Amino acid sequence: MAAWLSHLVTPHSHDSADKTDTALESSSRGLRVLGLSFAALTVTALAQAVIVAFSGSVALLGDTLHNFADALTAVPLGIAFWLGRRVATRRYTYGYGKAEDLAGLVIVVIIAVSAIAAGYEAVQRLLAPQDVRALGWVAAAGLIGFLGNEWVARYRIRVGREIGSAALVADGLHARTDGFTSLAVLLGAGGSALGFPLADPLVGLVITLAIVMVLRGAAREIYHRLMDAVDPALLDQAERVLAGTPGVRGVGAVRMRWIGHALRAEVDIKVDHHLSLVEAHAVAVEAEHRLIHQVARLRAATVHADPHGPGDADHHAALASHREPTTA
Where is this region: Disordered (predicted)? Predict the structure, then answer.
């Protein structure tokens, strides 16, 4: 009886075996995607590297360096997916999902290094121009880079959206951008074939700029995750779900955060103060149940029920000086 009463008065969490199985399957699919895309990009970059060696194309070199960097981004992200499968502990009470954000920081550094390397080589070639050889092979290498990146992009984006991994989707969009920079190598080869030797290093600079733009977007996404930012539309949806739950008289604070590729929520609702403890508990459970099933990627919710009434009674007066302001 004591254990039953303790469960009634504590916040409620909707963690279940089904949700655990879903999380494990999501991580497994993410690992498969990363393994296959790592192999595809590595083969693509190695093929390009061979052509760089005998062609001397700095534009192709920049694209090759970036493709190697793209392949390497799968390593920290794969480690993060593997860590995210571990169960929560008494020290890491929310589990290890935040490892994805740390992997994101590593990815940002890798992209930055590839941008610096590509830009340096392009500037050096502008200062000391060299003829580009085997232009047909250079053009072919650019096409290989585009096809490899586009396949990886489609695969990462599709699975990333299915499992709710923003990091995997962002990495897929990154690969798509790289595919178009590979096509830019064709422009460099075409310019050189038409007797404009500076076309190759100039395209190399354009590729460097494209890498920097990708770096900016990736850094912004990781910053949002580290700061626990979520799309305000998710809060609007959660508030509508809560307001439509039978027995809910009002909706208070609603907070969400990403932990890996899953959302967690903490919400306050108001229920009729005449309800019994069991009845108020039932309303909270129903609110939690609806949230988990109607808000995409939400895997756990903690619902706090406050009595609505009587009158203007403040049931948290003792905590007034300790509470943080609610969201604007």
Answer: 304-328
Whether 220 and 235 share a structural domain: no
- Whether residue 89 is contained in a domain is answered as yes
Whether residue 142 is contained in a domain is answered as yes
The letter for the amino acid at 54 is F
Interval 161-167 mean pLDDT = 75
What stretch of H or E contains 254?
A: strand 248-259
At residue 240, φ and ψ (nearest 5 deg) are: -65, -40
Contact by Cβ (8 Å): 267, 255: yes
- The percent of residues above 70 in pLDDT, for the chain, comes to 84
Question: What's the pLDDT at 3?
Answer: 38
**What was the pLDDT predicted at 295?**
94
Where does 164-276 have alpha helices with state H? Answer: 166-193, 199-226, 232-243
119 lies in the same domain as 202: yes
Within 13 Å and on the Cβ side, how many CA atoms surround 111? Answer: 27
Q: Quote the domain boundaries for residue 83.
A: 17-226
Global confidence as pTM: 0.73
In the sheet where 298-308 sits, what is the strand order?
A: 248-259, 262-272, 298-308
**Would you list the DSSP string of 134-182?**
-HHHHHHHHHHHHHHHHHHHHHHHHHHHHHT-HHHHHHHHHHHHHHHHH
Burial classification of residue 7, based on how many CB atoms lie within 10 Å of its CB (0-12 exposed, 13-18 middle, 19 or more buried): exposed
- Is 109 in the same domain as 189? yes
Find the helix packing angle between 199-226 and 166-193, rounded to 10°: 170
Tens of pLDDT, residue by residue over 104-124, are 888 788 778 877 877 787 787
Q: How far apart, in whole angstroms, are the C-alpha atoms of residue 103 and residue 117?
A: 21
